[in-house]
Amino acid sequence: MSREVIITTGSRLHWGLLSLSPQVGREFGGIGLMIQEPQLKLSVTQSTGSTDTVKGSPGSITKIREALAAVRNECPQLYRDQFYDLVLHSEIPQHCGFGSGTQLSLAVAQALASMAEEPSLTSVELAQRVQRGARSALGIHGFTAGGFLVEGGKQSTDEISPLVVRADFPEDWQILLVTPTNRTGISGYIEADAIQQLGAMPLATTEKLCRLALMQLAPAVQTHDFEEFASGLTEFGHVVGEFFRPAQGGIFADPQMAELEKKLRSRGIRGIAQTSWGPTLSIICQDVEMVASLVRECGYGEFCELRTARPLNEGAQIQINQI
């Protein structure tokens, strides 16, 4: 009998870096959250031919083939002469701030390891096989751990930033994702160029972001203090957004999302932050239907996709079927 491996994982919200180009200390770092939706589901079986077959959207097919090549390059003795049929049953939207590239690459690496019956690999080992973690490692750690995450930053270019805080996110806190349909976030070489042009983050900014992350947001998650978390996340988003203003044109990458944030704050809504380079705005709330109704009332339902999501407090699911 042969086997089928099915990997299911969620998306990653990245609310901002803690440091950039420091004279001393670690670089990057950051805070974020794994969520159940949008969801990725990948199935892999052994191919009967002498080539891989991949089914999915064009962009995802390219990333899957890149991940396959990277794994074979890292472990030629295990995978060089093995070929697979890979089917992407559900995908995480690309360039929206959901960390789709990392989750897809790690899913491929984990699926192949399970097909080869390798011993359990850590998320860092999986990431090294597919060359992820050049800057952020939130999605790497989130792939196997889920939850609310704080990473500590890199001391060297080849290091994967260590996880310093991981906590279950309260299940009764809901998440609304607002994504403009006419704009995408930046990534890859464009992202790297934008970061390089920003220069060093002021030490005072890093200190403020670290205080918010470690002395307000993380404790609020662990004590289920919604008001403390919501106010802290809004402040964190503004502080980090102000630093990235020259690269993205404002505190938020999309001017329409900036206007929406102002309108929601005027209605008393907090817990709002851009994820990664946007354009998606994430809103942590206790009544997601009420907040979604406000977003539509403000006129954003016509040109934005609204998604509701739940926290993902566990790692990727690995299902192995004998076929």
From TrEMBL:
List the molecular function annotations (GO) for this entry: ATP binding; kinase activity
Kindly indicate whether the keyword Transferase belongs to this entry: yes
Q: Which Pfam families match?
A: GHMP_kinases_N
UniProt cross-references to NCBIfam families, sorted A to Z: beta_RFAP_syn (TIGR00144)
Entry superkingdom: Bacteria
Domain (GHMP kinase N-terminal) ranges: 65-139
Q: Please name the InterPro entries in this protein's record.
A: GHMP_kinase_N_dom (IPR006204), RFAP_synthase (IPR004422), Ribosomal_Su5_D2-typ_SF (IPR020568), Ribsml_uS5_D2-typ_fold_subgr (IPR014721)
Give the organism, scientific name: Gimesia algae
Under SUPFAM superfamilies, the record lists: Ribosomal protein S5 domain 2-like (SSF54211)
Q: Record's PANTHER family?
A: BETA-RIBOFURANOSYLPHENOL 5'-PHOSPHATE SYNTHASE, HOMOSERINE/4-DIPHOSPHOCYTIDYL-2-C-METHYL-D-ERYTHRITOL KINASE
The protein, known as: GHMP kinase N-terminal domain-containing protein
Q: Which UniProt keywords apply?
A: Kinase, Transferase
